[in-house]
Amino acid sequence: MSLILNDLSVAIGRRAIVRGVSVTAGAGECLALLGRNGAGKTTLVRGLAGLWPVTGEALLEGKVLTALSAAARSRLIGYVSQDFASVTARLSVLELLLLVQNSDRMSWQPAPDSLERAHRMLDMLRLTRFAGRMPGELSGGQRQMVMLALALVRQPRLLLLDEPTSALDLANQLHMLELVRDYTRREGIVTVMILHDLSLAARFADRALMLEDGRVIHEGPVGAVMTETRIAQVYGVSCHVLPVPGGTYRAVYPVAPLTPGGG
């Protein structure tokens, strides 16, 4: 099981936003997409999700993603966008979890295990108390967790997360990313996540890909990519990258912008 991108490009209209991305992520790995605003991270994720046309090669478990139907692709890919505020359906959280599992069934009856799977997902994400409520009644952070539940409940092989912690407090940021990392390893899937907090990326990602102007600048194991020199080059910020006492990861401490508007 692996995700292989070879010379992948994404264009919006006639404008190429992402160009020539090549990277491989193996089963159980979390790949962090890093770079300044406008570097092409969200465009790349949306291209993988099938929302923008791509050229080049994208293989998941040996399957050519661009050759799959929308239904087949949706069964393989779970996507959590930045726009969590759009989850406003007049259905309860539990009903939505059942719906996404059975949306392609030619029957009024849900799959036999879908209710059990929905409750298991609610419990795993600490959402059980919200099962009977509609997403519009929840806070932004709670809706963000609901979107993750909707992505995971279909048991995807590729999980795409666009700034998944943007609306979460510190405790829930750690809870979500620990859960995602553990789920990724346990199920042997690939997770691609856009993170602006470099310390979270250093802690929870296995590999990192740095983009600048739609092109890959650095790619490899997260510790090798996230150096003080490379962060300064891509983000325009001087920083210290230091081991966390008692931890197995490093934290990034920004110091100052190197150029006006840097970072």
Please tell me about this protein's structure.
- This protein has 263 residues and is α/β, with parallel strands linked by helices.
- The protein has two domains: 2-226, Rossmann fold; 237-263, no CATH class.
- 33% of the residues lie in helices and 30% in strands.
- The chain has helices spanning 41-48, 70-76, 93-102, 114-124, 140-152, 170-187, 198-204, 222-225, 228-235; strands at residues 2-12, 15-26, 29-34, 54-60, 63-64, 77-80, 158-162, 190-194, 207-212, 215-221, 237-243, 250-257.
- Strands 6-7-8-3-9-10 form a six-stranded mixed β-sheet, sandwiched between helices.
- Helix 3 (93-102) packs across helix 4 (114-124).
- The protein is globular and about 55 Å long.
The DSSP helix count reads: 9
Biggest sheet strand order reads 6-7-8-3-9-10
Count of discrete structural domains = 2
Tell me the quaternary state: single chain
What is the CATH C-level name of the largest domain? Alpha Beta
Strand content: 25-35%
What overall form do the CA principal axes indicate?
A: globular
**Rg, alpha carbons:** 19 Å
Concise overview:
The chain is α/β, with parallel strands linked by helices and 263 residues long. It has helices spanning 41-48, 70-76, 93-102, 114-124, 140-152, 170-187, 198-204, 222-225, 228-235; strands at 2-12, 15-26, 29-34, 54-60, 63-64, 77-80, 158-162, 190-194, 207-212, 215-221, 237-243, 250-257.
